[in-house]
């Protein structure tokens, strides 16, 4: 098992997160879960072909839509670069228990 990495939200990620217009307690829990998963095993998520980016897709929950998070990582850090709504039918990488 690799070391736990530090999660860094880049300015563009924060701007896009604010721009989503979502205000719900569930979003905070989802982002906490995203950070937890990425800090421990970012290498387990799919790479965007032809780039250094990786991608994580969250599951849909009542009051919280599916989100797609683009990130990069190294041995010590994960950089959250972009976030957007995910409206495709791709199977989610990350499931949260109610």
The amount of helix comes to: 25-40%
The strand order across the widest sheet is 1-4-3-2
Rg measurement, Å: 13 Å
Pairing-aware structural class of the strands and helices?
alpha+beta
* Number of DSSP strand runs: 4
Mean pLDDT: 84
Q: Count of helices?
A: 2
Beta-strand percentage?
15-25%
Identify the overall geometry: globular
Tell me the span between the first and last alpha carbons: 27 Å
Major beta sheet summary:
4 strands, mixed
What sequence of helices (H) and strands (E) makes up the elements? EHHEEE
Which regions have little confidence, pLDDT < 50, spanning 5+ residues? 90-98
Oligomer: single chain
Question: Would you mind describing this structure in some detail?
Answer:
It is a single chain. The protein is α+β, with helices and mostly antiparallel strands and 98 residues long. 26% of the residues lie in helices and 24% in strands. It has two helices and four strands. It has helices at residues 11-19, 25-40; strands at residues 6-9, 54-57, 67-73, 77-85. Strands 1-4-3-2 form a four-stranded mixed sheet. A hairpin with a 3-residue loop joins strand 3 and strand 4. The longest helix is centred in the N-terminal third of the chain and has 16 residues, at 25-40. It is globular, with a radius of gyration of 13 Å. It starts with 5 loop residues before the first strand and ends in a 13-residue tail after the last strand.
């Amino acid at each position: 098992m690799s070391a736990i990495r530090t999660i860094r939200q880049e300015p563009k990620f924060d701007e896009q997160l604010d721009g989503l217009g979502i205000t719900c307690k569930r979003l905070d829990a989802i982002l906490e879960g995203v950070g937890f998963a990425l800090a421990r095993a970012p290498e387990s998520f799919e790479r965007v072909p032809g780039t250094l980016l990786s991608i994580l897709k969250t599951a849909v929950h009542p009051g919280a839509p599916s989100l797609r998070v683009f990130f990069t990582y190294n041995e010590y850090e994960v950089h959250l670069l972009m976030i957007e709504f995910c409206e495709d039918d791709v199977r989610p990488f990350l499931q949260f228990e109610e």
